[in-house]
Write a structure and sequence with these properties.
mainly beta, single chain, 53% strand, seven-stranded mixed β-sheet, globular, four-stranded antiparallel β-sheet
Length: 112
């Protein structure tokens, strides 16, 4: 059974940092393109960052220069380092493996 578990969310002040983790069981994340998405209340779910199997990385314009996606294949985990956080980053953050496997999400709240 495939399971993705996000962790690391929480409440942080503007300008603060958080590191989200997406840990997998049942699949090897190294075999997949992994994306982080986020969804704010009443909004659609939007892509934040993607790391492809070959290592190519893409970011949404809104997070470029502030967020960093990375893999640790030995731990079967993908991370999202989030710096210089803004209130508009407040959302539930989800990881996606390929096009099929979603985690349950972790809440990030940035206070002003």
């Amino acid at each position: 059974q495939v399971q993705l578990v996000e962790s690391g969310g929480g409440l942080v002040q503007t300008g603060g940092s958080l590191r989200l983790s997406c840990a997998a069981s049942g699949i090897f994340l190294s075999a997949y393109t992994i994306s982080w998405y986020r969804q704010a209340p009443g909004q659609q779910r939007d892509m934040v960052a993607t790391i492809m199997r070959g290592g190519r990385i893409n970011y949404a314009d809104s997070v470029k220069g502030r967020f960093t996606i990375s893999r640790d294949n030995a731990k079967n985990t993908v991370y999202l380092q989030m710096n210089s956080l803004k209130p508009e980053d407040t959302a539930v953050y989800y990881c996606l493996a390929g096009a099929d496997y979603w985690g349950q999400g972790t809440q990030v709240t940035v206070s002003s």
